[in-house]
């Protein structure tokens, strides 16, 4: 059993203890905080909560059991590779494919497929924990995702996501025939639902949620649906799905945020374009994953009424 401990004083004020630990101390990421076993968490000698505020000079003591290392199973899984060079893969991820192994799923993920390709080409896997995964897409979301072949490239790409210089465009079908206004910017804070911790909700309290911003534009109206282009400026979990549900209309087929409509069981959300700079290149490249067949099948059921301007 691998027991880890931190015992020191808080260096700066923070709205939430878990954010201080993940962002300032870099002991555990926020995802690791949810998965590890915490033996002791105290501030100034008193039992603490992840959500509480901390201030300069507070005494923090944290003891946790580090997760056991796991061996990633390389699997020869077919991938739709849009682009590949010595540094990266750009992949059109299929709907239904999980990006990285997690609780209850150790195989048949994108990471398993990448592990096989690294093993075949390089003879080794450089980082089983991250395995080239720079950003993520939900299991139900299809589309373009970029993955690194080595640690240096991973750091280079990850910094661009951190600096928010990566440009992303998503296509979605919303459950409304009339989207007004036809374009706009959504800005608020996303936090976990108190009722269902795997769900997220919008709010206006920066101390409870994480800032999220999404631009949107109507592309076409149909009898009962709207085709929309999303431009996320931040990359929060379920961001587009929650913003659509709370501020516009739900995304068709969303199994979490639009379960009221049983007619479509496939999420109509697709990562369409990704613009990012590759190693040893001065200008960014744009990669595009073709709109999937499920969009055409869904829209074919509804007579097209009017098209909006499709120029970006």
Automatic annotation (TrEMBL):
CDD domains: PseudoU_synth_RluA_like, S4
Any GO BP annotation: enzyme-directed rRNA pseudouridine synthesis
Active site: residue positions: 138
Keyword Oxidoreductase: no
Protein name: Pseudouridine synthase
Function: Responsible for synthesis of pseudouridine from uracil.
GO molecular function, one term: catalytic activity, acting on RNA
Family affiliation: Belongs to the pseudouridine synthase RluA family.
EC number: 5.4.99.-
Domain Pseudouridine synthase RsuA/RluA-like: start-end pairs: 87-245
Keywords for this protein: Isomerase
Catalytic activity annotation: a uridine in RNA = a pseudouridine in RNA
